[in-house]
Design brief:
It is a single chain. The protein is an all-alpha fold. The chain is built from 10 helices and 3 strands. The longest helix has 34 residues. It is globular.
């Protein structure tokens, strides 16, 4: 945004939940715990996907990318939010706001595309099992992932530039806990109808289109599962698909309610709560639903822990032998 004419402009004031000071301490503790658990869960998925050769498959390649995105998204917003809860000025610099907006938009768009890619991967695994490795070959997986990243951040460049070039006219109080397009548009002192139309169009592309593709893919998966003869197999497949769809609906539903409504109809506290879902809750749920409940991941985690313990015991044994070894050196007068 064009800065104010005041040469002392130092950044934006993130109001966050300052209107409800009695909630700030509780929210600080809750958000800190969720951030820690999310960091631990997503970090574990990335570590296991890299270290365990048995997880070098298309599904875990996509999941490790998803975990990396969630790590970056929470780290982009949560530390600033926690600092504002305990700080007095609640200021974020202009450059910090631009960076936060660019990264959050880029990661959000990339994740939307990647989730649709993961739905296609599951469709190929369930509906075309005999041709799965031919369809999802490593080159295609890499191409799809790179496309998701470039699409998300390419769009973010445009949206960030359009949003941050609007005139402020002295306004610098952001009624949110991080810099986000709908809230930043409300600061502008000019007609934003073109920008709102652009935001709506981009949101349809990144939200409605991928969500439709995901639902179609899971529709085909459901049809294939219903043809299974094993009742236990059907129950397990429905349980897995149901949990996946639950996370997808939470993620896309909250984003749609935020980005596909006109800024004039925003409810401040409601939209802050909605934003907490897609910046905190879904990054926590993704590793739990997609990975850590999976027997392959549990097996990889057990192998990693066992290997680490055995290595530590071996190192301790060598250290003990070295300490107990006799010294045959001769001291000369």
């Amino acid at each position: 945004m064009e800065k104010t004419n005041d040469s002392t402009f130092s950044g934006f004031i993130l109001l966050g939940f300052s209107g409800r000071p009695q909630l700030e301490t509780t929210l600080f503790v809750v958000i800190l715990i969720i951030y820690f658990l999310s960091f631990l869960g997503n970090g574990t998925v990335i570590l296991l996907s890299v270290l365990d050769p048995r997880l070098h498959t298309p599904m875990y390649f996509f999941l490790s990318n998803l975990s990396f995105m969630d790590l970056c998204l929470t780290t982009c917003t949560v530390p600033q939010t926690l600092a504002n809860f305990k700080g007095k000025d609640k200021i974020i610099t202009y450059g910090g706001c631009v960076t936060q907006l660019f990264i959050s938009l880029g990661l959000g768009g990339t994740e939307c595309v990647l989730l649709s890619v993961m739905a296609y991967d599951r469709y190929a695994a369930v509906c075309r099992p005999l041709h799965y490795m031919v369809i999802m070959h490593p080159q295609l997986c890499l191409q799809l992932t790179v496309t998701a990243w470039f699409t998300g951040f390419g769009s973010s460049v445009v949206q960030t530039a359009l949003t941050m070039t609007l005139p402020l006219c002295g306004k610098n109080q952001v009624d949110h806990f991080f810099c986000e397009v709908p809230v930043m548009l409300k600061l502008a002192c000019t007609d934003t109808s073109i920008h709102e139309t652009e935001m709506f169009t981009v949101s349809v592309f990144f939200l409605v289109v991928p969500l439709s593709f995901i639902l179609i893919s899971y529709g085909h998966i459901t049809s294939a599962v219903l043809k299974m003869k094993s009742v236990q197999g059907r129950r397990k497949a429905f349980g897995t698909c149901g949990s996946h769809l639950m996370v997808v609906i939470i993620f896309f539903g909250t984003l749609i309610s935020m980005y596909l409504q006109p800024p004039s109809s925003y409810l401040k506290d409601m939209n802050k709560s909605i934003a907490l879902f897609y910046t905190l809750v879904t990054p926590l749920l993704n590793p739990l639903i997609y990975s850590l409940r999976n027997k392959d991941v549990k097996g990889a985690l057990r192998r990693l822990v066992r290997t680490t313990i055995d290595r530590e015991r071996a190192n301790a044994g060598l250290a003990g032998q070295s300490a107990c070894a006799p010294n045959f050196s001769v001291t000369r007068n």
